[in-house]
Amino acid sequence: MGQFFDDLSFKVNYYEGINALGGTLYIYDNVAVFRPHSFNLGSPVDRVIQIRDISGYKKGLLTILYIYFNNGKYVKLATWKKDAIINAFEARKNVLLGNHR
Fold first, then answer.
1. 17 — alpha (psi -120 to 50), left (phi > 0) or beta?
2. Separation of first and last alpha carbons in the chain
3. pLDDT tens digits for 75-87?
4. Confidence band (pLDDT; 50, 70, 90) for 2?
């Protein structure tokens, strides 16, 4: 039987090169979507993260969180909720990959 999670949202900055976009990271059962604020400089399109493709994390200084993917790429976020985001991703990934009890 599948497990369904409550959708979560976190205020984050999403880095693209040296440019940081402010917005909200929405975490669903199998994907996460970063939706930038409309007043950012840069592309206003949503960025989608496939949770099953996450391979690991690295906590940087203060608010920095790196999310690594199976293809070697990564996303850099700034957030005060690093542990909550990691825990949400890991819980969903375990269900998606069948690693739950």
1. left
2. 11
3. 999 999 999 999 9
4. very low
DSSP type of residue 80: S
Cα 82 from Cα 17, distance rounded (Å): 20
Helices (H), 1-101: 82-96
pTM > 0.85 = yes
Measured CA to CA, the distance from residue 58 to residue 64 in angstroms comes to 8
Query: Residue type for 78, please?
Result: A
Token pair for residue 56?
Answer: 């690991």
Q: 27 near 92, Cβ under 8 Å?
A: yes
